Amino acid sequence: MHENAGHPWSVPELAAISGLSRAAFARTFRDALGQTPMQYLTDWRMALARDHLRTGELGMTRIARTVGYSSPYAFAAAFRRHHGEPPGTWRQRESLRTQAGPGNDPHTH
Hints:
The protein has helices spanning 11-18, 22-33, 37-55, 60-66, 72-83, 87-100. The protein contains six helices and no strands.
């Protein structure tokens, strides 16, 4: 998952790679990390997406494909579910916070 977040991972595929049954893999994964494999994958993809949004080097279409979504619309919907706001809004807020510098977050005053 970490090496290729854009791959369309599935629990059966991950289980096969691990050499476990699907149920055993899902249970072992959840016991070890406290969440399902697909929840973990979504969290990982969102962490990568935030990094891309923060740098501003990639557009939404490229970010979507890089982190495993078929379109910028699918990515935006997933991002909104995960963060409670659209990726463009998140990017703007982060940009303002970066410009304000440490201790000067305009949202804390």
